[in-house]
Amino acid sequence: MTDRTLCSGDGCPVRARCLRFRLVAYGRQSYWGTPPYDHALGVCAYFEDVVTLAPTEHDVRTRAYHLWLAAGRKGDADAHWARAERELSAAFELRREPL
Length: 99
Hints:
The chain is mainly alpha-helical. The protein is built from three helices and two strands; from the N terminus they run H-E-E-H-H. The longest helix has 20 residues. The two termini are 21 Å apart.
């Protein structure tokens, strides 16, 4: 995950979908002093939709590979792929749930 300035979301109508509000800070973290949402224009120049956290094909491939390694380099590739998709999709849905 790249380094991002996070947002407190105070008074922001899009905060439930905003990655900068939803990410969990570990250790030191930069936050905006005032949320960057512009109420007059109805937009935030720094808005990143949480959908960007959806697992990519590369993520699934990497997870399936690790499952294959954990299985002793044995097993059905399709089964490892399906399990990787299920695990990553479940983790994504947990991060997408409304606050």
